[in-house]
User: Which sequence fits this backbone?
């Protein structure tokens, strides 16, 4: 990856629908070389997919809940089972295995507290958990899907 690739990624993270010709103009390339770079980054898995970011309120999932899970089960079989259970819940939009006091952390989006309660009841009906703690987000202060690219390894193309 060089500085031009990083500029391309910055533009795509802001607007993945930007035409390749416009991206090329902004980074100093013609359309074909710019397109080749984008294709290479897709093939290499740097660009995993291009998506539409929706307004959660307008699609009726305006309540965000952070769910901390503790378990007494610490083995691969249980972890895979838990991951399989979570895959069945579209309300879970992020799911992490954690270090520290919490074993797993989920971000759940639902339309209401009542909908979260129904989610919770379905969840505990499918898998045994030691402790579940839920924290409701009161407001979103910052949200981005754009990753910081200052840390990306860049080939020094000036040499």
Assistant:
């Amino acid at each position: 990856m060089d500085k031009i690739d990083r500029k391309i990624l910055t533009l795509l993270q802001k607007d993945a629908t930007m035409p390749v010709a416009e991206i090329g103009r902004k980074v100093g390339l013609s359309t074909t070389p710019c397109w080749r770079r984008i294709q290479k980054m897709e093939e290499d898995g740097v660009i995993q997919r291009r998506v539409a970011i929706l307004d959660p309120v307008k699609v009726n999932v305006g309540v965000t809940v952070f769910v901390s899970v503790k378990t007494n089960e610490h083995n691969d079989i249980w972890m895979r089972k838990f991951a399989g259970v979570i895959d069945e819940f579209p309300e879970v939009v992020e799911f992490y295995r954690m270090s520290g006091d919490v074993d797993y952390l989920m971000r759940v989006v639902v339309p209401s507290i009542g909908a979260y309660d129904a989610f919770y009841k379905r969840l505990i009906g499918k898998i045994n958990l030691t402790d579940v703690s839920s924290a409701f987000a009161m407001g979103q202060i910052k949200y981005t899907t754009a990753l910081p690219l200052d840390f990306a390894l860049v080939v020094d193309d000036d040499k």
Notes: The beta strands are 63-70, 92-97, 104-110, 131-136. DSSP finds five helices and four strands in the chain.
